[in-house]
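Lecture 7 notes: from sequence to structure.

We start with a single chain of 272 residues. Read the sequence below before looking at the structure.
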Amino acid sequence: MDKIQIKNLEIYAKHGVFPEENVLGQKFVISAVLYTNTREAGKSDDLTKSIHYGEVSHFIRRFVEEHTWKLLETVAERLAEALLWETPWLWKICLEIKKPWAPIGLPLETVSVEIERQWHTAYVALGSNMGDKQAYLQLGVDRLKETRGCRLLAVSDFITTEPYGVTDQPEFLNGVLKLHTLLTPHELLERLHEIEQEAKRERIVRWGPRTLDLDILLYDDLILDEEELHIPHIEMHKRDFVLKPLCMIAPYVRHPVYRRTAQELLEELCLH
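Now the structure, written as C-alpha cells:
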C-alpha cells in the first residue's frame, strides 16, 4: 500500500500526568504515516482522489490542542481513531508522538509512543427464532450501523432456515452483514453481546431459541482460537444458513483455514 508521510509536526499542547503540564503545556512532535492508494490520484492529478496532507496536519494540530489527556498512549489512540474516522481514503496509520524533555528529573532528549491502527473487514452472522424475528435482526443491523468505529457495507437478504443442533424449536431467520471496523475482535465481540442483551437474549440452552444471535464469522484473514472467541467461526463451513446469506454479499471471500471461497464451501456442503 502507498504511503504519505508527515514528519515532526510541532504542536504546543497540554498533556501529561502532572497538573502543571495540563496548565502550562509543552511541545509535542508528531509524525504520521498515512497508508492509502495513490494510484487514482497519481493518474488523474486530482487531489480529491488522495489524502490532503495539509488538511491532515491542521486536523492533528487542532485535535491535540483542543484535548487534554494524561497519557501519550491516550493521545495516540484517540488521534489515530479520529484520523481514520474522518479522513477519506485513509486505510491505515502509523502514528508517533514524541514528548521532548519529558519531566522525569533526568537528562532526556525525548520519549515517544508509536502505534499502528487500521480499518478491518469483518463478517457477522445474525439469527433469530423468537418474537418479531425481522425486527430483532434489523435491531442488530441498526445498532452496528450506529456503533462508533464501525461502517456498515452490506447486508444480505434474511432467509428462513430450519433450526440447527436442537431441532425441536421454531424456524430461524438468518442473515449476514459486512462491515469495516476499527474495533479489535474482542471489542467487536463485546459490542455484539451488548446488542444481544438489548434484545433480551438469554443463554440458557446451547443452540436453543434466541431473540438475537450475533456471531463473528470472519475478521480479515485472522485465525484466532481462544476459549471465548474463535475466528473464523468454527461451525461456519458446516452451516448453509450462514453460507447462503454470506454468498449473497461476498461469494468470493476466502476462509483463512480451508482456503476456499464461501461459494466453494456452500457447493461442497450441498454435495453431502
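The two ends are 41 Å apart (CA to CA). Keep this in mind for problem set 3.
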